[in-house]
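Appendix B, example 12.
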Amino acid sequence: MKAFQLAVVSTAFAFTSLGAFVASAADTHVMVMPADLKWVDLPSLPTGAKIAVIEGPMNEAVPFTVRLKLPADYKVPAHWHPAIEHVTVISGTFNMGTGDKFDQSKTTPLLAGSVAIMQPKTNHFAWTKEETIIQAHGVGPWAVNYVNPADDPRAK
């Protein structure tokens, strides 16, 4: 339980202190152009990932929308989220698989325009061969919980 609380608190801090563009729930209509996105480091994923928050905050029980920019040859270890995750590939190829341990041979390549929907607490992992941008949306509160705590970059 303590590890879960740490994950929620550190993820909430990361997403609420990013200084990124965030649409508030009070806005009646929002349009965001790619040039409006403010990319910042994402401490809950291995070094190299960037996030741009479009709608949030992710630490509250409200809708959120983010974009993640992942560099070439990037790996995301097995992890899960407490809420449903909807992922749309914007550019590049996002290779995604399910299971308790990263296994590149058990992934499906998701090309630009592809969608993946992960149910809460589903262990999954991913990798890229080229720079890849994905958009994730759901309803918070949100957290990244690693299957193997040693994989968590926040603990290093």
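The first strand starts at residue 40 and ends at 41. The radius of gyration is 15 Å.
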